[in-house]
Amino acid sequence: MKAAKRFLARLGSYGTRTRDEERLREEIEEHLKLQTEQNARAGLSPAEARRQATVRFGAVEAIKEEYRDGRRLPLLETLFHNTRYGFRQLRKKPGLTATVLVTLALGIGANTAIFTVDYATLLAPLPYPDAGQLVMVWSTIRGGRNAVSTADFLDWKRESRVFQDLNAQTESSFNIATRAQPENVEGRVTTPGLYRMLGYPFFLGRDFLPEEGQPLNDHVVILTHKFWQRLGSNPHVLGATLRINSEPYTVVGVFAPGLTDRGQGEFSVPLAFRREQLNRDTRWLDVMGRLKPGVGIKQAQSDMYGVTKRLAGSYPTTNKGWGVSVEPLKNDFIPASRITTLWLLLGAIAFVLLIACVNVANLLLARSLVLQREMAIRSALGAKSGTIFGQRLTESLLLSLAGGALGVGCGYAMLQGLIAVTPPNTLPSEADLRLNWPVLLFTIAATTLAGLLSGCAPAWYASRVDAADALKEGGRSGAGPHRLRRLLVVMEFALALPLLAGAGLAIHSFWNLMNVDLGVRTDHTLTFFLDAPDARPSTPPSTTAYYRKMLDGIAAVPGVSHVSVETGTPLLGTGFHPHFFIVGEPGYLDPSLRPWVGVRAITPGYFATFGIRLIEGRAFTDRDTFTSTKVAIVNQYFADRFLRGKNPLQMRVSIPQLLAGPVRVGEPVQWQIVGVFHNVRSRGLREDDAEICIPFWQAPWPSAGVGVRMSGNPMAALDSIARAVHAVDPEVAVANPRTMAQVRDDVLASDRFNMILFLSFAAIGLVLAGVGIYGVMAFSVAQRSHEIAMRMALGATRNRVLKLVLEEGARLACCGSGLGLIGAYLVGRAMQSTLFGVGSLDYSALTIVGLILLATALVACYLPGRRAASLEPMQALRRE
Amino acid sequence: MEQPEEKMVIPLGTLALMALRTLDLLGPLHGYGIARRIEQISGDLLAVGQGTLYPVLLKLEQEGAVQSEWGASENNRRARFYRLTRAGRRRLQQERQDWDQTTEIVARFFRVKAEELQ
Question: Can you tell me the distance from the alpha carbon of A565 to that of A213, in angstroms, rounded to the nearest whole number?
Fold first, then answer.
């Protein structure tokens, strides 16, 4: 209470300092006069009277000091004073200040950008009201999660007790007529309650009505904001008609900008189940629910477990063995390896900031050495070591604050760059990448930490300068500070090695991926997709005729050597993924235990078009028709895994009939294996998958991919190929045309992106470490010029001097790298799940990055070394 | 020059108490007056640099125990006069009680004999 009163009084008196000072002076003067008069009356001479009065009063200056301390706000005032001092110091050295600011701004900016991505993706709450209630509900079998069948979804909705609402959605692609040519776009197909359940805002119009979830009522569409803009931003768009898959759809709404614009689809149409879709064997729906208030995941899980158990009991053929998993919506769509990668990137960039801090510490320390005499004089004049420490620390905090402010700007620019180069669909659409308060708080914390880290060592050193020593040595520094600076360089290299090792692992892993045997040739091959509208009536003969015409038309384009139709493009997928069993083998009797296999329907030209090698047996021919014996070709992996020790060409496989049109699984059909082909990577590049190819003519499917092998540049022929396609069908779009090389690059996009990020972080770290060691060695050489000149005068050759400097640099780099090995091992362990074909201790990568680091150190030391070697001994000694 | 006797160093905080009591006893006084009176009352037994009084007075003023204003000294020069406030008077009373209590307790320790504690 008393203290508070005094603080207020001090605060009040803060502005009146000069007046108070004057008052005290006057009071003391008056006091002394009175005492002098008194003394004079007692008989002393005037001079002696004055002297005695002064003696009696005590040390005037000390009392004034104490009096002033009593009036002041020490902390605030010191801060203010130190800040002004700091500014003055920084202005005096613009070069150093700029170097430090750029270093810090880059470090802090990069951290801000990466943290923004991590925050938006992993930490920020989902942008829906009561987002904690939102869950995904998956079917599960043998521990893996799966999409949900229509009938299961409807039963879940009816029988579960824990959901406020349960909705289903799927993605599909559509042909729409927006320009002269038909265009293929992605769209979301959702049950009408989904957007209401999410609480998603609308820009125009309304959500789907419940009755629009019925066939015949379902020709309505909600546009995303970006698609609405692409269509011309028509404010009166409601009620307008959009032709989707050649049928008229009425626009009833436009989503608010933001979330849906970042997602995959361009628009949304209602999901209306047709009668033939009400089955349990085709699992194709993503099911999302909103839990009732107060219901937890566990309770929902146990309620749904009961529901699925009853269904499994009632429908054993389709549902035996099928369970359910209720999972929070948050992060449910991001693969675990991507989450790891996001954290790893943040860790890597934090390392970069640490190295930047060490660098700044080093620069400031070098300056402390230059300022040593000033510090010594000040401490000789009575400056306390705490005061000097505070001043120096304030200086580096000022630097880091300025660096942080620049860093926010830098981070914004980096974030925009990052958004521009991030491969599509890497981040969930809920992730809104922008600088917001949590991000700024992070930046402020990082900035303060950077200031403290980079400021403490130099400040500590400056505050401990021994005045007598420093002045005695005539400005040449002792061994202490230099030892500290060398320690910092060692630290820098110890931090840089793990960073470089991370990049090395990412590059090695990417190199392995690039050199995976894809099983296909990627040159001179064009692929695209023909998305036949669902509603168009199709029978096997009509589809066969349609694609025969297509193939003939495309084959007639000049330069085309091979052309094929297939239900899935190599590297991207096979088209179908049903259960199968091998005829006559026991162990496949229980349907829930049957394995899955990729099934691709292909025309005879497929193997030649994509350059796929046949290992055994024969390829398909035009004589394998709808009415002839059903035949199949399996891949090597399938033969090794399921037909070990048998002659594949004598086996038959059974897969369900592929039924075009209705989404439904047909009766099992047996296929005679007639060949084995070389493995083709079809689910990403990382692993082989069992695959069966069947003749397209024996299982015609309305929508299919087309592969074309050309003699020239495939993209150049795209227009004439599109003309050939539209000559057969003017309404179908040539969707997603890419060369096989592009397909491969797209599949590798996120791996390449990660590698480039790690690589650029490592490059920054390497440059910073190089600059750091250069700074130390250059300074050390300058400080030791006397010693070096002496050595040379005593007969050391220039080469020996150069060697001396290089050796010291190499020693520091090696010490640091040695320490860094521990970090490198930990980094390797953490990255393990994201790597391909690389162990956590990858000796080849480690050796290479170690050599790079050492080479950088030597190059950085060569310049100061040369300067030392070119010293003229006599001149240098005379200068002393 | 006379060598001062062995003088007592005043315990911390008591200088403020002495200044308050002096003002209580004699009414408004300037700094020199307070210093002189303290010396007089203590019988010149205290080693007080007269100047140390001023920071103490400032502290008392900040705490609201005294107020000060410019006035004319005996020989008609400008001097700053300190006056006890009502809060200062209350504080003096409080501190006096505390002081009495403390001395009483300490005195008991000196009075007490071993046999009385059986």
Answer: 34
Q: Which of A708, A58, A211 is nearest to B56 (CA)?
A: A58
- Whether residue B77 is contained in a domain is answered as yes
ipTM above 0.85, yes or no: no
CB atoms within 10 A of CB B91: 21
Of A575, A617, A612, the C-alpha closest to A597 is A575
| E strand segments, A594-688 | 598-602, 614-617, 631-635, 652-658, 665-677
Residue B61 domain boundaries: 14-117
User: In DSSP terms, which residues pair with A288 in a beta bridge?
Assistant: A136, A167
Contacts of A782 (CB under 8 A, 6+ apart): none
- Contact between residue A219 and residue A250 where contact means Cβ atoms under 8 Å apart: yes
Give the side-chain half-sphere CA count within 13 A for A846: 18
B62 vs A10: CB contact, 8 Å cut-off?
A: yes
Q: Is residue B67 part of a domain?
A: yes
- With CB atoms and an 8 Å threshold, state whether A71 touches B64: no
Q: For chain B, what is the domain count?
A: 1
Residue in B54, B61, B63 closest to A63 by CB: B54
Q: Which residues of A touch B80 (CB under 8 A)?
A: 23, 26-27, 30
Residue B38, domain member (yes or no): yes
Tens place of pLDDT per residue across chain B (118 aa): 344 445 565 665 788 888 899 999 888 888 888 888 888 888 776 666 777 888 888 888 888 889 888 888 777 777 888 999 999 999 999 988 988 898 899 999 888 888 777 6
Residue of chain A whose alpha carbon sits nearest to that of B78? A30
Of A446, A373, A371, A374, which Cα lies nearest the Cα of A403?
A446
Mutate to test the interface with B, among A25, A28, A57, A71 (most CBs of B within 10 A): A57
Q: Report the length, in residues, of chain B.
A: 118
- Name the band, by pLDDT with cuts 50, 70 and 90, for residue A17: low
Which residues of A fall within a CB distance of 8 Å from B78? Answer: 26, 30
Q: Is the Cβ pair A13, B77 closer than 8 Å? A: no
In a domain, B6, yes or no: no
Four-point Cα dihedral A90, A92, A94, A95, nearest 10: -110
The answer to whether the CB of A200 falls within 8 A of the CB of A128 is yes
Q: Are A67 and B54 an interchain contact pair (Cβ–Cβ within 8 Å)?
A: yes
- A66–chain B nearest CA distance, Å: 7
Q: How far apart (Å, rounded) are the C-alpha atoms in residues A608 and A630?
A: 21
